[in-house]
């Protein structure tokens, strides 16, 4: 008896095996593509060693830096009120302060949107507790404190008129994933504002990895579906770059 005559080949089973094999290969290729988004290097001072589109991601400033965020000279140094004036806020605007920290911007913005809402999105628990305490002290009913993730802001799709990050973007551990999450959370025509210390100015006394150039911001944001909508050059030490989802 020939061996071949003992085998019963089920064509449906063969097709299923082929499809599963193709799916596994496709999944592996997708995972490889994702991992290729980021590369690694020897960390520079203040850096993580993780690189995105040619830029080393900076280490996160922990909750020990809360005093720096609330320093008495901040308004004079950065002119935060001018930045807020240029946010194009309306009374009913729905806004997210991503990486809200101690709420230095959160509660100022909340005053400008009395019929709207401000989501104070924060990852670090100590800052979350501070935000909740300040919300109670200031009786800011239109502020909602949200626990964010390293890849998500945990807000509903198409819910925001404006999302902003103040000296935060350069520290995001997963910038591509976060930009995609923000993109989904913005309404059609929604805006994303980045305030970042000017890398082009060597006289600004901030660590290099905690500064960004206009060119680098545009490179990364445009690769993720955003286009430059408004640039304000009147701030003393920060870029004001407002982008719109395509």
UniProtKB/TrEMBL annotation:
Q: Has UniProt tagged this entry with the keyword Transport?
A: no
Q: Which residues form the Methyltransferase type domain?
A: 97-193
Q: Which UniProt keywords apply?
A: Methyltransferase, Signal, Transferase
Among InterPro entries, the record links this protein to:
Methyltransf_11, SAM-dependent_MTases_sf
Q: Which residues does UniProt assign to the signal peptide?
A: 1-28
- Name the Gene3D superfamilies for this protein: Vaccinia Virus protein VP39 (3.40.50.150)
Q: Which GO terms describe its biological process?
A: methylation
Superkingdom of origin organism: Bacteria
Which PROSITE patterns does the protein's record reference?
Answer: PROKAR_LIPOPROTEIN
GO terms for molecular function, please? S-adenosylmethionine-dependent methyltransferase activity
Pfam families assigned to the protein according to its UniProt record, in alphabetical order: Methyltransf_11 (PF08241)
Task: Provide the protein name.
Answer: Class I SAM-dependent methyltransferase
Native source species: Pontibacter cellulosilyticus
